[in-house]
Amino acid sequence: MQPHLDPNNFSRFVQGVGLTVTEATGKRVAGHIDLGPHHHTPWGVVHGGVYTSAVESAASLGASLAVEDQHQFAVGVHNATDFLRAAKSGRVDIVAEPLQQGRVQQLWLVTVTETNTGKAVARGQVRLQNVPLPS
């Protein structure tokens, strides 16, 4: 894996969300976030942006790994994340898998589930464009 694709060193932004990646290939990305008060809205529930960021990050990592041997990476062009259930704390698991992987674009499905109950809290689809790596 190239240094710029270190799954646990995306950026300070992703680190702030708390996404820990435990598996990363061009066919599957898995990880988790330990949710707590630092993820809350003023009303005491997890901010939807946490889930949207996890969905985008997991899909982007997997899609980029899928095309790295072609000297490309993937950039999100559309993210549709649905928030299914409110959460306050605890671990959530993130799993991203491709629905379609083409020469130019990819479509990934990402699910976010409560570790303890297995209930989905969010689900997202991300369409990504494969682009050349910067020189």
Would you kindly provide a written description of the structure presented here, covering whatever features stand out?
- The chain contains two helices and six strands; from the N terminus they run H-E-E-H-E-E-E-E.
- The protein has helices at residues 12-17, 48-67, and strands at residues 20-24, 29-35, 72-83, 90-101, 105-114, 120-132.
Write the SSE topology.
Layout: H1 12-17, E1 20-24, E2 29-35, H2 48-67, E3 72-83, E4 90-101, E5 105-114, E6 120-132
Antiparallel strand pairs: 1-2, 2-4, 3-6, 4-5, 5-6
Task: Give the gist of this structure.
The protein has 135 residues and is α+β, with helices and mostly antiparallel strands. It contains 2 helices and 6 strands.
